[in-house]
Specification:
The protein has helices at about 10-35, 35-50, 65-75, 90-100, 140-150, 165-185, 190-195, 195-205, 205-215, and strands spanning about 55-60, 80-85, 105-110, 125-130, 150-160, 220-225, 230-240. With about 240 residues, the protein is α/β, with parallel strands linked by helices. It has a single domain (about 15-25, about 35-160, about 205-240), classed as Vaccinia Virus protein VP39 (Rossmann fold). Strand 1, helix 3 and strand 2 (about 80-85) form a beta-alpha-beta unit. Bound molecules: S-adenosylmethionine (SAM). S-adenosylmethionine binds near residues 15, 30, 130, 135 and 136.
Length: about 240
């Protein structure tokens, strides 16, 4: 006898559905909620990835594509960027963003899972990831996949929220999330979607733990840079030269 089909909703399904739902307002909310600062943090991330003109680059968990676009501007017409995300709604916005850019940027948008990347080993010269590591369901696996697809000696820069070590700044961060971010999101009908930031941040490994996970994934060098008083951080990882 065939067992009845069991419908299971995994954490990954829920995260995918969440980012599909928030796609239409995602960019606008990021600008409001970070007072435009996320643009500066993303520029720093591209710089720290060491992406150069002519490089083949990866932007993992690219969402609506702004970081991939910055990478595209950096590598220029002789380079190539692959923006990867598993949310089709976010990728659709990324595509539209790309259509408005002149001259067109060398970016391909790929719907795929960061935990199982559709690329050969040792393929990329550099990579970025913005606010993706906190959202994947398996951080060690995602770092292993990133390590696998980077060329020997290549660097990736991973930007995300961080819990500041200074208790006053930590209290300010919590206050901003609870009294500005969630109410603004609620006003846009997205209370549930943005209320998840604080709990996800509480579970997210701190800088030293991120370094340990990167080393376990095989990276020869890993450094975590707290930025903006430690409310954000960039993990910079480099694969061993062969
Ligand atoms: C907070 S958004 C960040 C988007 C963009 N990088 C930015 O900096 O604004 C996180 C993105 O990660 C994507 N994501 C989460 N888990 C993923 C996975 N396993 N594979 C691919 N994309 C994933 C979500 O769909 C979402 O677009």
């Amino acid at each position: 006898m065939t067992p009845p089909a069991v419908e299971t909703t995994t954490d990954a399904d829920r995260i995918q559905a969440l980012f599909n739902r928030i796609a239409p307002v995602y960019d606008r909310l990021n600008d409001w909620l970070s007072f435009g600062q996320h643009r500066i943090w993303k520029l720093m991330t591209v710089k720290w990835s060491h992406a150069s003109p002519g490089d083949i680059c990866l932007d993992l968990c690219c969402g609506s594509g702004d970081l991939a676009q910055l990478l595209g501007e950096r590598v220029g017409q002789t380079g190539q960027v692959f923006g990867v995300d598993f949310s089709s709604a976010q990728l659709e916005i990324a595509r539209q963003r790309g259509e408005n850019h002149y001259p067109p940027l060398p970016i391909q948008w790929i719907e795929a899972d960061a935990l199982n990347l559709p690329f050969a080993n040792n393929f990329f010269d550099a990579a970025t990831m913005g606010y993706g590591l906190r959202n994947v369901t398996d951080i060690p696996r995602s770092l292993q996949e990133l390590h696998r697809v980077l060329k020997p000696g290549a660097t990736a820069a991973i930007l995300d929220f961080h819990r500041p070590s200074n208790p006053t700044i930590q209290a300010i961060q919590q206050w901003i999330l609870q009294t500005i971010v969630v109410p603004v999101a609620t006003a846009n009908g997205l209370q549930e979607e943005y209320a998840y930031i604080l709990p996800s941040l509480e579970k997210f490994p701190q800088g030293p733990e991120q370094i340990r996970l990167a080393q376990q994934a095989g990276f020869a060098q890993a450094t975590h840079y707290p930025i903006s008083g430690g409310i954000m951080g960039v993990l910079v990882v480099t694969k061993r030269h062969s």
